[in-house]
Amino acid sequence: MKQVWLLVAFAVIALHSALWADDWAPVTPEELALKASVVEPGADAEAFFWEVRVKDDLESDGRSVYENYLRIKIFTDRGRETHGTVELAYSDRSKIKDIEARTIKPDGSILLLKKDAIFERSVAKTKGLHLKAKSFALPGVEPGCIIEYRWRDERPLESYKRLQCQQSFPIQKLIYYFAPLKLDEYGMNFQGFHIACAPPAKVKDGYYKTEIAKVQAFKEEPRMPPEDQVRSWILLFYSKSQRLTPAEYWSDLFQHPHSRRGSESRLVLRT
After folding, report:
1. Could you tell me the domains of the chain?
2. Which residues of the chain have pLDDT under 70?
3. Which of 56, 73, 54, 265 minimizes the C-alpha distance to 173?
4. Is the CB of residue 163 less than 8 Å from the CB of residue 176?
């Protein structure tokens, strides 16, 4: 019986891998023909989209899973040099899995990243923390190519999340999906910083979706303020639901003046 269950488990894993490998979004003629950035004229590269699916679950003592998918057009040699090699950093408390990548040449031909072209290295190690990175160079990258890659990032369950909205290149469309835990007394709150984003709309399979168009590239500057004060990001966090009357609200605000600061800009996502 144990052998049967092992065979079933291997079959499920193989099926998941096969489906993951075959579900790349179609490349359009307009994407192949694009010659210059739509968001920032003169940019060396630009993402057509960056899609992230964020899901919390209680498996394996709880985890937060991020599934990332990026499609980027390379315009210049500098874009090839800068973005043709990808490095994904993570800590020893997290896992980077299911890396897939490919290059679409200007004529539509496709070069797949081989599994043995993905490397892992140690970045920094201190007491209680080990930072690592997985890196890969996409094959055959040249100006006019499209590169795309995706990966799965698994972390211990997080009560709050900092979701980055900017990369080192402009993004035509940023899409975030959120699937919060189903909790009776707690809801997930959504708040954007330094970016205008529409309230998440409920879609299928327990997810909420928000979409942001024409995201500028993040550029570091000498003597700039701390990064969190200038970079665009979204905060997701769980908090206890409260249904207060007006009198109760003002009484609670008077007693706890700092606990509700900024609450008017938050949106609670209820499952």
Report:
1. 32-269 (2.60.40.3140)
2. 1-22, 60, 241-271
3. 73
4. yes
| Non-local CB neighbours of 101 within 8 Å, separated by 6+ positions | 86, 112, 113, 136, 138, 147, 148, 149, 150
Q: How far apart are CA 175 and CA 53, in angstroms?
A: 8
What is the token pair recorded at 119? 């490397």
pTM of the model: 0.81
Task: Return the number of other C-beta atoms located less than 10 Å from residue 90's C-beta.
Answer: 19
Dihedral angle of Cα 189, 56, 209, 68, to the nearest 10 degrees:
130
Question: What contacts 24+ positions apart, CB below 8 Å, involve 38-42?
Answer: 38/170, 38/172, 38/214, 39/170, 39/171, 39/172, 39/214, 39/215, 39/216, 39/217, 40/170, 40/216, 40/217
